[in-house]
Amino acid sequence: MPVLLRVSTEDFLLPTKYFPNSIRFLAIVFAGFIFATSAGAQTKLLRFPDIHGDRVVFTYGGDLWTAASSGGAAIRLTSHPGMEVFGKFSPDGKWIAFTGQYDGDEQVYVVSAMGGIPRQLTFYPAKGPLTPRWGWDNHVHGWSRDGKRILFRSQRDSWSLPLARLYSVSVEGGPAEVLPMPEAGSGDYSPDGNQIAFSPQSRDFRSEKRYGGGQANSLYIFDLKTYATKKITEGPRPTRDAMWIGDTVYFNSDRDGHFNLYAYGTSDGKTTQVTSNKTWDVRWPSSDNEGHIVYELNGELQVMDTKSRRSSAISISVPDEGLALRPSRIPVAAFMESVGLSPKGERAIFNARGDIFTAPIEKGPTRNLTHSSGAHDKWPSWSPDGSRIAYISDASGEEELYIAPQDGLKPAEQITRGGGVMRYQPEWAPDSKRIAFSDKDGKLYVVTLSDRKVTEIADAPHGQIRDYVWSPRGNFLAFSMDDNVNRYAAIRIWSSADGRVRRVTDDMFNSTNPAWDPSGNYIYYLSDREFQPQISQIEFNYATNRTGYIYAMALRKDVKHPFPPESDEVTVAKDDAPKPMGNPGEEPKSPAKDINKELKDPAKSPAPSASPSASPAAEAKP
């Protein structure tokens, strides 16, 4: 990375009473050497180059630049806030066609190679801006050999993103004309202009390295008059970026594990490897169709002479005012990644722009605890005793665990060593004596702070472990891990007493995100155990989107059920004797006699009273 030097003339023009003239002279020479070296330093991230004669054009910082093909200082061609990419020289070198993001769209433009006002050539609305893996719409690929038309890829007629075709548009403007191939990604005309070497796919910005699936780029030669088609590449690996020079089609492929240049002879049909880079990939090669190919390698540009098939690096310096390097104050409120609180809530902790900060809840200053502009500090965690902050940082070159005092008065201390992969958030044990953390490879660790001993307690065969949490007393660590055949996660508990990991949930259902009951009686977790399919009102299908609920598990046999069965029942009075009925203030009447009992015992029954209306027949009934 470039080193920021804050230099002024006062640093060197000191009074002679402090330095002799000879030392003062050497200081001035040394300062001039520093400025000269930085001004001529190789600039990285030079992208999408093209070449014509002794000039190259490329994209840097979203703008087009030109430079001598032998190297040197670059000259800016465009400065619009939008992206200008895929600059291509016309055959006579006077014009540069490119894809530009002007006026909120991506279209084909042309500009003088000496600079000037870009002129728009296409106007059909682009499908963009697209996500990075899809690249750009109206992607410029080159020129016709007579210099009258510009070749570009467009998705204007496609119904799906991966489908595109090649079009050409006149340098004078007018409607674009589609080439006859039904699908095309990139292409380059033959010297006579009657054929084109092209790829049906357009996976230029997708992860294609060592990809061997059905969507891998391949190359064909298509006759624009007879429509005869011939495949010129073989094997499952991608072959792309065709460049037709004389009777040879050069292309880029990673068939040896790295992207390198190859040459296909159109007369003999033989393919030979041209470059053999083993560390960096050849990216975005482009030719002048005369005998030179320029390409990216490790963020820099290389030029290859097709006659000798030798490449040479170009040292290009892009002038920059260094706005991103000058010291400045930047509000970090919009860049916070993770937040937390001190144990008693007096201060908040967060990381932003690679540093760890604490801020008061009400009164006091905000503190930067790390001040590490060259490192990424993240995942801060406050110790339960409130004295320290644990976090992950790559200050050593690899991600390690660090601990810093919460007041920031002393430097942070590196706890772990030998890391090789990304590591995740540290979690303090309640006694502040141990810390748990995990890594990208699915491993879970516990480090004892007294002796710096790191113990691996789990290794997930699938995915990662990110939901580890300590028990209230810190003698157990709960987490979920997927090591079942059905790929369902289960809750595990690690014991500090015997170092064993025990599974506490079954493998029939997915269970994650454990949380301890503060009293230590239960462990709560999320589990997918309910299936209540909802039928769609639009389509005839179902959605099982209500499977997850919160569950509790008792940790001991003597623990009562947290939610015992409940039922609302009717309350029945204890005194069941009926109360006599009557009007208020009236003497209670005697209970009614049991007539049936008296009929069974006539001797105890009173004699019937005489009645003038009683008939003899009625008096004779029992």
Write up what this structure looks like.
This protein is mainly beta. The protein is built from 3 helices and 47 strands.
**How far apart lie the N and C ends?**
124 Å
What is the average of the pLDDT values? 87
Strand portion: 35-45%
The shape is elongated
Q: Largest beta sheet: what is the strand line-up?
A: 1-2-3-5
Main attributes of the structure:
4-stranded antiparallel sheet, elongated, mainly beta, disordered N terminus, 3 helices, 622 residues
Short description:
With 622 residues, this protein is mainly beta. Helix content is 5%, strand content 37%. Strand 28 and strand 29 form a beta hairpin.
Secondary structure topology:
Elements: H1 21-39, E1 47-52, E2 55-60, E3 63-68, E4 72-73, E5 75-76, E6 84-89, E7 95-102, E8 105-112, E9 119-120, E10 139-143, E11 149-154, E12 165-170, E13 177-178, E14 186-189, E15 195-199, E16 220-223, E17 229-231, E18 239-245, E19 248-253, E20 260-265, E21 271-273, E22 283-287, E23 292-297, E24 300-305, E25 310-314, E26 316-317, E27 336-341, E28 347-352, E29 355-360, E30 367-368, E31 377-382, E32 388-393, E33 400-405, E34 413-414, E35 427-428, E36 434-438, E37 443-448, E38 453-459, E39 469-470, E40 476-481, E41 490-495, E42 501-503, E43 510-516, E44 522-528, E45 534-535, E46 542-543, E47 548-554, H2 595-600, H3 616-619
Parallel strand pairs: 4-26
Antiparallel strand pairs: 1-2, 2-3, 3-5, 6-7, 7-8, 8-9, 10-11, 11-12, 12-13, 14-15, 15-16, 16-17, 18-19, 19-20, 20-21, 22-23, 23-24, 24-25, 27-28, 28-29, 29-30, 31-32, 32-33, 33-34, 35-36, 36-37, 37-38, 39-40, 40-41, 41-42, 43-44, 44-47, 45-46
